[in-house]
Structures are given as C-alpha cells and as structure tokens.
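Design request, tokens follow.
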C-alpha cells in the first residue's frame, strides 16, 4: 500500500483563523508589535486581513524564542503555530508559535518610521505608503471597497449600464475656476475631467440608463476636510428621467451602500469605533426640503444665509443636523448652479436640481438633477457662462438629434465613505490622497 502523504499545514489568513481552532496553520505577514515579558514573548502579527497575538515561551520553543527576540517592527515573517480561542486577545484567538521564518528583517539601524503612538497628520501623510498598513487605515480601505462593490451592485439591480467617461476632456463641466489644464499632444490643450456627466448624457441617449464611475479632478484651492483635487464620482444618467426619479435613485443607492457596510463590514466598523446605530437608521425615505425651506431653517437657527446664497460647510451642517438620515434639498436658485440645469417651469429662477447632505455634518455627498433639453436654452446658457461653444458642439448634438428630458447625479465616493467610516477628513478614505499642496507619495 502506498504510504499516505502527510497533510501539509494549511496557509490561512488571520480573518479565517476561527475556522482552524485547535489546528496548526501557517500565517504570512508582518510583525506588528512585540512585547517581551521575561521568558515569554507576545508578538502581534498582521497580514492585512487582521491582527493576531502570538505566544512564545523560551522553555517550550527556545529556537523560535531566540529568533523572535528583538525582532524589529514590520519585519516580514511566516509563522507556523496552533490556534487557540482566547477571549481576552484582540480578535478572540491566539497562536502558539512553533516555527518562525523571517522573510526580511527591518534593520535596527533604520527602523520602521511609524511607531505605535500618535503621530502628526503631515508626518503620516508623507508616509502614506506605510501608514496604510495600520489596522485602522486598512479597515477604512476595506470599507471603501465595500462601498464601491455595493454601489455597482445597486446600479446594476436598477438596470443601469456602466459606460465610463474620458479623463482628458476638451472643456469644463463644473465651472472654469477649478480646471486642471494639461498639455495634450503637440500644441493642443486638454483638461482633466471635473465630471463625466456630459459624456453619460450621450451614452444615456444611446443605452437609456447608464452610469460612469471613475476619478474626477478639481483644482480646489480650498483647504477643507471635504475637498480633494482628485476624487471618485459615480454618475448615473437616464433618458426620460426627472428630478423625482433621481432623488429616489440617490436615496436607494446611498441606503444600499450604508446597509451593505453595516452588514458586511461590521468588524471594520468596530475597529473604527463607528456608532453603527446611526448608520442603521439610514433607510428610505430621506427627508426632502426645498431650498426656500432650507433658508428658513438656517435663518431660524441664527445663520446669516439669505435667499440666493450658496451653502458652505457650516450651513450644510446646521441643515443636516436637524435629521437622523441624509437630507435632500431641491430647487436651488439657478444662478448658483451649473449651466446645464433645467429651470423649474413653475419658477424659472429655480433649477430642477438637488443636493443630498449626509448626516452628522459630513456635507454634500450628491449633486444632480434634470438637464436642459432645449437646444436654444442650452446655447443661451453656454453664452451666459462664457463657455467655448466650439468645444460643446458634440454636446449640443444631443439636443439637435432626438433630445429628450433626462436627469442624473454625481455621488462623491470619498465623502460618502468618510461619513460611513466616521473619519474626520476625507483624505483618509482614498489610498493616496491628492490635495492642494500634496501630490506625494
Ligand atoms: O456637485 P458636483 O460638483 O456635481 C457634478 O459634478 C455633477 N456634474 C454631477 C452629475 O450630475 N453627474 O459634484 C458631485 C459630488 C459632490 O456632491 C461631492 O460629493 C463630490 O462630488 N465632490 C467632491 N468630493 C471631494 N472633493 C471635491 N473637491 C469634490 N467636489 C465634488
Ligand atoms: Mg454640488
């Protein structure tokens, strides 16, 4: 009879160790921390899916003890050991290490720069490529992934087709003051896209219900906790849709993102110490008020806003704090909104647009509404806004050939994820943030 091959020790992730209680496993990762207590060592290993505490006794594992002792933080290691339930340990399990392979030892002369203590944010941002290794940052990035996954899932369930927009564009979409100009081939100029909207308007006329989802760029000179110069936007657009359709779609999309995070990423939300009761409440219907009503609320709270003003962070925070779920504000004055917004036939000084303000002071996460479908009115608006008509001829074609009422919106991914995570600043929710004065690393 052939001799049975001994079963190999399985390589598992820290996330999965619960399934291997009592068994020997191999973990591949990094040394996150090491506590030395006489004849015992308590390493903490991380592998990107979680952290686990280990124990090594000098008496039982003298070889492992010697190689682990003094090992530097973030050295890469392959660890073999037995998994034990240990309710006092972070994650609920512990590993009794039986073998240790050091893949790369971080030299003592050049230690890992991020210690397990508080660092200033500029220090951390300069080392963003390393900062993302800390469990908190990894949890944030997993929540970002979940938000993207859930958003795509929702758009798909509503019959929307992904049709991505270009990044090099010939003209502005959201005002000329925040355009990034790039030198294109030869002497031609191009701009980094501020929004894929104009292009999804075209694909909506071809496919009906569409969306794009990609990076967008704004030369934002403002240094706030809500502005990046490069951020991701999900932009649905639908032929024959109106303002109400888009408010309902936005409400459904945001609820699905938030509920998916609560359901599928409970561990990460716990790592972030996020109050999930506030997230669980995020279900349709969301409160809806008009811009006129918003002005009234602000004035009642003693804010100096007057009709015709645009809202800044302060105003958004006052408004959203009146409600336990995101707030939809619709029908803003046309004068403070983009050139393409359809006027309200009842009151042409208003635009059939809406913003969605996240709860807990996270500000505007969605902007959108109905688009102008009349050729003549669109030409008039381009002129009023001093936009180059030449560059918009293709966009005007959409009004020349079978123009229909249509609507859409843009959801800012980072603002949404920052709110879900409860982070102070949106720079933490993108792997490598781009901001005024920061394009490194
Ligand atoms: O309100 P905005 O400027 O709308 C548009 O760009 C439309 N063309 C979208 C459309 O209708 N298809 O931007 C939409 C969202 C904002 O609500 C906000 O969440 C986010 O994009 N956003 C930013 N996020 C981070 N940093 C910035 N500088 C942002 N500017 C806008
Ligand atoms: Mg906006």
């Amino acid at each position: 009879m052939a001799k049975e091959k001994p079963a190999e020790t399985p390589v598992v992730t820290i996330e999965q160790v619960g399934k291997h209680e009592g068994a020997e496993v191999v973990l591949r990762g990094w040394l996150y921390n090491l506590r030395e207590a006489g004849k015992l060592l308590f390493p903490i290993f991380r592998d990107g899916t979680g952290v686990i505490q280990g124990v090594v006794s000098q008496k039982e594992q003298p070889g492992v003890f010697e190689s682990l002792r003094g090992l530097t933080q973030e050295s890469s290691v392959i660890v073999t050991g037995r998994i034990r339930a240990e309710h006092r340990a972070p994650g609920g399990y512990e590993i009794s290490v039986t073998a240790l392979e050091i893949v790369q030892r971080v030299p003592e002369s050049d230690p890992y720069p991020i210690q397990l203590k508080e660092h200033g944010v500029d220090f951390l941002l300069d080392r963003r490529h390393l900062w993302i290794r800390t469990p908190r940052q990894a949890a944030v990035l997993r929540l970002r992934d979940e938000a993207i996954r859930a958003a795509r899932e929702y758009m798909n369930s509503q019959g929307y087709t992904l049709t991505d927009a270009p990044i090099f564009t010939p003209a502005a979409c959201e005002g000329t003051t925040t355009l990034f100009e790039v030198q294109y081939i030869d002497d031609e100029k191009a701009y980094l896209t501020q929004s894929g909207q104009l292009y999804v308007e075209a694909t909506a006329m071809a496919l009906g219900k569409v969306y794009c989802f990609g990076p967008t760029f704004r030369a934002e000179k403002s240094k706030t906790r809500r502005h990046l110069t490069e951020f991701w936007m999900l932009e649905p657009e639908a032929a024959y849709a109106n303002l109400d359709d888009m408010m309902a779609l936005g409400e459904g999309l945001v609820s699905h993102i938030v509920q998916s995070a609560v359901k599928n990423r409970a561990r990460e939300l716990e790592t972030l110490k996020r109050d999930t009761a506030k997230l669980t409440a995020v279900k349709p219907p969301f409160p809806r008020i008009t811009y006129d009503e918003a002005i009234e609320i602000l004035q009642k709270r003693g804010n100096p806003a007057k009709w015709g003003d645009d809202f800044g962070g302060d105003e958004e925070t006052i408004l959203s704090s009146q409600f336990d779920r995101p707030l939809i504000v619709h029908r803003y004055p046309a004068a403070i909104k983009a050139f393409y917004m359809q006027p309200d036939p009842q009151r042409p000084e208003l635009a059939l647009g809406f913003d969605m303000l996240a709860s807990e002071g996270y500000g505007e996460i969605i902007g959108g509404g109905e688009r102008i479908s009349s050729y003549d009115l669109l030409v008039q608006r381009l002129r009023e806004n001093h936009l180059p008509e030449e560059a918009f001829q293709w966009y005007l074609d959409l009004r020349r050939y079978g123009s229909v009422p249509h609507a859409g919106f843009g959801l800012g991914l980072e603002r949404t994820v920052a709110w879900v995570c409860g982070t102070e600043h949106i720079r933490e929710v993108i792997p490598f943030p781009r901001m005024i004065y920061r394009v490194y690393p």
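Comment from the thread starter after seeing the answer: thanks! The chain has two domains: 14-104, 129-429.
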